Amino acid sequence: MLHLHHSWLCFRSWLAGMLSVLLGLVPSASSNISTSRPNILLLMADDLGIGDIGCYGNNTMRTPNIDRLAEDGVKLTQHISAASLCTPSRAAFLTGRYPVRSGMVSSIGYRVLQWTGASGGLPTNETTFAKILKEKGYATGLIGKWHLGLNCESASDHCHHPLHHGFDHFYGMPFSLMGDCAHWELSEKRVNLEQKLNFLFQVLALVALTLVAGKLTHLIPVSWTPVIWSALWAVLLLAGSYFVGALIVHADCLLMRNHTITEQPMRFQKTTPLILQEVASFLKRNKHGPFLLFVSFLHVHIPLITMETFLGKSLHGLYGDNVEEMDWMVGGKGMGGWEGGIRVPGIFRWPGVLPAGQVIGEPTSLMDVFPTVVQLAGGEVPQDRVIDGQDLLPLLLGTAQHSDHEFLMHYCEGFLHAARWHQRDKGTTWKVHFVTPVFQPEGAGACYGRKVCPCFGEKVLHHDPPLLFDLSRDPSETHVLTPASEPVFYQVMERVQRAVREHQRTLSPVPLQLDRLGNIWRPWLQPCCGPFPLCWCLREDGPQ
To answer: Which range is least confidently modeled, 124-128, 219-223, 321-325, 375-379?
Structure first.
């Protein structure tokens, strides 16, 4: 896609659908890293599995461009996401902080932002790496998916918009490419709304019929006005249940350039070339640098919209086609603390600076991108808040043998599900699960009756004692260690639980952005071009 001399690639993994990240660096003429102010390219892909690209072992899907980045760069094998779903993990990526610190979590099951017209989003007092780099003179751009909120009090205040979080330029989707965006895809949101509307229709229809019967038989002394209103509302609800899918498409599936809506609803087959053109245009405008460009792919999240060129070309159906299309653009889900939901591929490429073909098995995090990028740009990591990420450059350069992460916490919404301990002196990485989602049927790797695993309630298990795994020997977490099978079981458990208590003492109460008040549709916050609720426009065909 783009032939740059330096790139980083960080992918977010899955075994139920996740986020992926690629980073790319293009150095300036300076050979001094501390003063080089490199151009920085970040690429992120949704729902891409760690086993779905060639450089991480897949030999049936073709990802030659990503594989080439890995051949020329440093590959991380213990790279971890701070969350297993879009909204919280993106918040952590941009801020270098666990999402629970910024309130980008829920306590009631809303694990991502549900609507473009909701009031929740990345708080304005959070500091993103884009804000810091902009202050350092970088041109900053975001092209693709945002999914971190839009408005607070009106449809035009744009308080959570990328331009309010340090980006000079934004082109893409303020929400997320969910199943609602294509009528052939199953959508939990659409189905739930249809069920609720149908239920209310049945109630009001029953009320109307009862009133009519009472009026005609003179058993209920009532005028015709409530009868007419009950019947009218019943008809409106019935119509709404049939058209709710189309309404959601117009409400959520839109493209914006900066603060202006350019397509509502989106034309899916045009989106990929439009994003590519926009990337090329940004790079051309800012070729003299320094710049930070964050390309956030809509791939490979459902619905699997793929250009005709790639349809039927892979060995893995529409999903494989989508992965291969995403690779071409380069040149089960929400499983709590399980490795399948948070272990991500990571490749860092910087020819002439980082050694090609190196593999690092030390624990690292996507939150590490924040301090790494900030320090490469000559900025300073904020001192007025806890930053959970660590600068990766010493590890990548080989000047440090071990990761600065001794412990990493794994949250599901606001609930701590698991923790890992890198016991450096032993070269062992332990994983302790306090809570795990229930898989149904047993061993199927999917959560009972849901696309996204729950974080609390009847569909999770609380373990006493907690489950213990040695990830160094058992990365797939198939062999639970017990006091009988592991001599240091109690010592490991005590050390991890002490670290958890120390971590929890650093947390401060903050408003939860994804709870009900911030995560319900509010008509007055709905971005709309054209008369509401039609919200239709097509304002341009190419990049600006």
So the answer is: 321-325
Question: Which SS3 state, helix, strand or coil, does residue 272 take?
Answer: helix
Residue 511 within any structural domain of the chain: yes
Strands 255-257 and 169-173: antiparallel
**Sequence-separated (6 or more) residues with CB below 8 Å from residue 310:** 321, 322, 324, 325, 328
DSSP state of 410: E
Q: Would you call 173 helix, strand, or coil by DSSP?
A: strand
Q: For 223, which DSSP code?
A: -
In a domain, 194, yes or no: no
Let me know if residue 228 belongs to a domain.
Answer: no
Per DSSP, 46 falls in state E
Quick one: tokens of 425? 């002196």
Which residue spans within 382-536 are E strands per DSSP?
407-412, 415-423, 428-437, 460-470
Specify the pLDDT at position 118: 94
Q: Which one is catalytic: 6, 79, 147, 301?
A: 147
What is the pLDDT, as a whole number, of residue 182? Answer: 65
- Kindly report which listed range (155-159, 183-187, 275-279, 468-472) carries the lowest average pLDDT score: 183-187
Residue 147 designated active-site = yes
Q: Checking phi first, is residue 397 left (phi over 0); if not, alpha (psi -120 to 50) or beta?
A: alpha
3-state secondary structure of 201: helix
Residue keyed to tokens 């291969």: 324
Q: What domain range includes position 148?
A: 1-177+253-537
Residue at 335: amino acid letter: M
Whichever domain contains 422, its CATH number is: 3.40.720.10
- Cβ burial 299-321 (10 Å sphere, 16+ → b, else e): bbbbbbbbbeebeeebeeebbbb
Residue 289 lies in a domain: yes
pTM of the model: 0.83
Are 303 and 182 within 8 A, CB to CB?
yes
180 has a pLDDT exceeding 90? no
Given 86, 181, 453, 529, the catalytic residue? 86
Q: Are 292 and 130 in contact (CB under 8 A)?
A: yes
Are 105 and 139 in contact by the 8 Å Cβ rule? The answer is no
The number of folded domains in the chain is 1
- C-alpha span between 331 and 472 (Å, rounded): 34
